[in-house]
Design a protein that fits this description.
Glycosyltransferase, single chain, mainly alpha, two-stranded antiparallel sheet, five-stranded antiparallel β-sheet
């Protein structure tokens, strides 16, 4: 992450790679956990500086980049959108930074960024509770809601509400938006994947639990229902259920999810399996293609390192913010 961070504090996926505010924010959180305070604070400044006047960010979709060869992602511009999940996540980042540092002044400094970002997101919520994946799609033929993104937004709204109370600016409309979104995630399946079925992706499986929208017995049942579909024993979590590719980031996020529902041993096992996917310096590769038995692609994204750090923090409670991602309102 430090090697990827640019002079203005931005943290792209890798040197010369795409940048988006969600993965950048995840890296800022991991830097705080790792004690890299200067770099983390610079990252917060970069996040605020790149915010648009509408409260959103233009975030690049690195996941749609082509391969430059069989083993590497292309270093070229990626499509960029005003993604609602990308925008909302700054609330988690700022709340996490406050819990780490205990600095109310830090929370107040970045509160305007969070306030404008959440206002942008809530504007794109439908009466049915679901939130459009981007401003560009809202109200168009491409309008749709994504379970993973909305599950993440649900957590972001929780952290935004915590910040609002901390700075003395309660936001009851956000609380109502969070309640509607949670109801949609739990009981309005027809509002998701209207244009594309994403049920093959692991993130759509575990994110409603990770974000806190689904808890208790329902969360346990959801994880059990598709466990064998997504988890390859001894390897990790498949990114896509029918592909022989276990990815470190999804495995780490699933581990955080497991900690949040009390399955600590299963989380520990998942994290231990990821040790096989590290380089000589300890950095994590993106994933393991287990039919060919190769690390693939040969990339070590900054956000993969961040996910691993945050997952270990959630399990072993290294930092004061260890429970930010695992405890919910």
């Amino acid at each position: 992450m430090l090697e990827a961070q640019t002079a203005d504090g931005a943290i792209p996926w890798f040197e010369g790679g795409p940048w988006d505010p969600w993965n950048h924010g995840e890296c800022v959180m991991a830097l705080f956990v790792g004690g890299e305070q200067a770099a983390a604070r610079q990252g917060l400044e970069a996040l605020a500086a790149r915010q648009g006047r509408d409260g959103a960010w233009l975030g690049e979709y690195g996941n749609v980049l082509p391969m430059s060869d069989r083993m590497h992602l292309a270093r070229e511009p990626a499509p960029a959108f005003r993604d609602t999940n990308f925008a909302a996540y700054c609330a988690v980042v700022v709340w996490h930074a406050f819990v780490i540092t205990g600095e109310v002044a830090l929370a107040r400094r970045y509160w305007p960024m969070v306030r404008e970002a959440i206002a942008f997101v809530v504007r794109l919520q439908h009466p049915t509770g679901d939130i459009s994946w981007s401003e560009e799609a809202h109200g168009s033929d491409a309008d749709d809601a994504v379970r993973a993104g909305c599950g993440s937004i649900y957590k972001s709204l929780e952290c935004a509400l915590r910040l609002a109370d901390l700075v003395g600016e309660p936001q009851p409309a956000w609380a109502a938006a969070k309640a509607r979104l949670g109801e949609a995630l739990r009981a309005r399946p027809e509002r998701f994947d209207r244009s594309l079925d994403r049920s093959a992706f692991a993130m759509d499986w575990y994110y409603p639990v990770l974000g806190g929208a689904i808890g208790g017995a329902a969360a346990q049942a959801r994880l059990d229902a598709d466990w064998s579909r997504f988890v390859a024993p001894g390897l990790g979590c498949r990114c896509v259920h029918d592909q022989p590719w276990a990815t470190v980031a999804e495995s780490c996020e699933l581990a955080i999810t497991l900690v949040s529902v009390g399955r600590r041993q299963a989380a520990a096992d998942l994290l231990a399996w990821q040790d096989a996917h590290r380089d000589a310096e300890g950095a994590y590769w993106m994933g393991w293609q287990f039919e060919e038995a190769i690390l693939w692609p040969e990339e070590r994204p900054s956000w993969t390192q961040a996910a691993a750090i945050l997952a270990h923090d959630a399990l072993f409670e290294w930092s004061p913010a260890a429970r930010v991602l695992t405890q919910h309102l």
